[in-house]
Design goal:
heterodimer, A: mainly alpha, Rna Polymerase Sigma Factor, Chain: A, 2 domains, B: 6 strands, elongated
């Protein structure tokens, strides 16, 4: 395992970070980017955007069911993050903080949309719709169906499922992000999964 | 063991149940084909969710990134990096207004002869605010950067203290910091001088 690059330029450290998973050493580099952002360094903040943009988009897309809304959410999440980064405790992991902002932003967008129209799920625009040469159409359809099913869950269940099953966070982390208890998250997850099972697999409540 | 609830099976599929309960359900699954099938379906659902994530195309990422950076370039820097004493300033401003409305506007003898500036004092550590009337100017220079003895009469309550002035980076706001060792060494009072 290589050590931190010596006196890395921000650009180089971003490239270095992008190639690695979250470890203690790159956490140090992320802290460096956060510190520079706190001093008003927009380039350093751009590095944080590069690192977390996909994750924020993926989560927002699962929560909102719309690529266009997810793209708007990404912008809003990073704007709020920039405005509030001075309050962020450097000793903590940045990802849960961003997930929390994402959940809040998406909740606001979803609420605003509910007032105007129903939830829609689109599959166009900014997302790679071609699954790749080796991925079947059936798989692409399955993804679409899953996203439709997610969009039909109540927002809190959708958020718990997205953070747990899509982002792979623990129930404790999900509870912290959503500002609730682990018991509530477990309840939301079990209820959400049961609904998804019925929607995706067409199963009703347990049959004898 | 009777068949577990659907919600429990949903949790077992993701490993979220309580350890002891999981063990008993897993034992049950080994002998109950229906529950095993149900857990398998929940795992399938989890897997479907896990692989349902969308990814932005590189050009879309670049475009959104550029828009974010363009928008933050219009944000005032101070919004991102506020002064650490800003919360104290806000509290002090509110207290000044409250004190004035309650007839507790205080006067502090200025270091130099002239108009007596208004000041509201509050205990920084133990709200609510304490109000003091300084009838004798503190014997300390406004440029003093260290704690210096101050002597004053505040309605007969306080007689001596240590005092220093702190000028904020805006060059306009001065905060007076007061300690009263005889009363309580840990008591520290801040107030904003006009």
């Amino acid at each position: 395992m290589s050590a931190m690059p010596d006196a890395p330029s921000i650009g180089r450290s971003i490239a270095w970070l992008s190639r690695r998973s979250a470890t203690d050493s790159n956490r140090e580099a992320i802290r460096d980017l956060v510190g520079k952002t706190k001093k008003g360094d927009a380039v350093a903040f751009g590095g944080l955007v590069d690192l977390y943009q996909q994750r924020v988009f993926r989560t927002a897309n699962a929560l909102l069911g719309s690529n266009a809304d997810a793209s708007d959410a990404v912008q809003e999440v990073f704007l709020r993050a920039y405005r509030n980064i001075v309050k962020f405790d450097d000793s903590r992991d940045l990802a849960p903080w961003l997930y929390k902002i994402t959940a809040n932003v998406c909740r606001d967008i979803a609420a605003a949309k509910r007032r105007h129209q129903g939830v829609s799920v689109d599959e166009q625009g900014l997302v790679s719709t071609s699954p790749g040469p080796f991925e079947s159409v059936a798989r692409s359809e399955q993804r679409h169906l899953t996203r439709l099913a997610l969009a039909r869950l109540p927002y809190k269940e959708r958020a718990a499922i997205a953070l747990r099953d899509l982002e792979g966070l623990t129930t404790r982390e999900v509870a912290r992000i959503l500002g609730t208890t682990e018991g509530t998250v477990r309840s939301q997850i079990s209820s959400g999964r049961a609904k998804l099972r019925r929607i995706i697999l067409g199963h009703d409540r347990r049959k004898p | 063991m009777t068949c577990p609830q659907e919600t429990e099976l949903a949790l077992v599929a993701g490993g979220e149940g309580r350890d002891r309960r999981i063990s008993s359900i897993e034992s049950h699954i080994l002998i109950c084909e229906r529950c095993a099938q149900e857990v398998a379906e929940f795992r399938l659902v989890r897997s479907a969710v896990a692989t349902s994530g969308s990814h932005m195309l590189p050009n879309a990422r670049e475009q959104i990134r550029a828009e974010i950076l363009e928008r933050i370039s219009r944000e005032p820097l101070g919004r991102a990096a506020s002064h650490p004493l800003l919360p104290i300033l806000w509290i002090a401003c509110v207290l000044i207004v409250l004190s004035a409305s309650a007839g507790l506007v205080l006067t502090l003898q200025p270091p130099q002869a002239g108009v007596m500036p208004l000041a509201a004092a509050f205990d920084a550590h133990r709200p609510p605010a304490h109000a003091f009337l300084f009838s004798e100017r503190p014997e300390v220079s406004p440029e003093s950067k260290t704690m210096a003895p101050a002597r004053f009469d505040s309605s007969g309550i306080l007689e001596s203290a240590q005092l220093k002035f702190v000028e904020l980076s805006d060059g306009l706001t001065r905060i007076a910091q007061l300690r009263i060792p005889a009363k309580d060494p840990s008591l520290e009072i801040h107030w904003i001088m006009e």
